[in-house]
Amino acid sequence: MSRRQLVVGNWKMHGSRPANATLLDGILQAGPFACDVAVCVPFPFLSETAATLASSDIRWGSQDCSAQEQGAYTGEVSAAMLHEFGCRYAIVGHSERRAMHAESDQLVADKAKAALARGVTPIVCVGETRAQREAGETEAVVKRQLAAVIHTLAHCAGEIVVAYEPVWAIGTGLTASPEQAQSVHALLRAQLRAASGAHADEMKILYGGSVKPDNAATLFAQPDIDGGLIGGASLKAADFVAICRAGH
Ligand code: PGA
Fold this sequence. Notes:
The longest helix has 19 residues, at 178-196. This protein has a domain at 76-228: Aldolase class I (TIM Barrel, Alpha-Beta Barrel). The protein has an eight-stranded parallel barrel, surrounded by five helices. The protein is globular, with a radius of gyration of 17 Å. The chain is built from ten helices and eight strands. By secondary structure, it is an alpha/beta fold. The structure holds 2-phosphoglycolic acid. The site of 2-phosphoglycolic acid has 13 residues, from strand 8.
């Protein structure tokens, strides 16, 4: 399968204007890459990130977006606002938002729909907790999370990027083994195929959870892993660049 891989940095709530300039400069100096590369940055930094990356092929995105079009939603940012200045991606349903902001499967699906409606590609995160894995519920959990999105998006479901991020692997230094990750990715691919037909073979399913320079290549070599969503290691240019170089 010749899907072009995608490596996305998820800065989370990190960064400052000087630190971002150094990080983005390091990425720009190292490019171009054999895979697509993007950074998902905190909202206040989006505009400056867009300007810094304007003449490069590095893409940028946000880490969330509102499910609502506009209105009295204090603190929310709409997909239309993101689209207006060239935002390519919006992460939706990250496990930190599902856990700390009580985001339901349906809300995540509605956010994905709002993003797509404005031409912003949602990166939809799914993943099981450690307790769910130990209880043998991994398959049921990720399928339920993805099913909500497929159902809500209907014929547009093929436009999303999916990220499998086992919660127990995020920020813990514990990575799913390439085999563990591949088996979940294959399940997700089959679910996408049932919804979107052969187009599912062109869709990207990223792996996230303690991806580092020393494990990226083996993860990215799995047949259904199409790149990564990188948290901690996306904050250091040398590490992020090394991971991007593992993509193809
Ligand atoms: P991590 O985070 O790479 O620091 O584990 C990944 C993520 O949360 O997207």
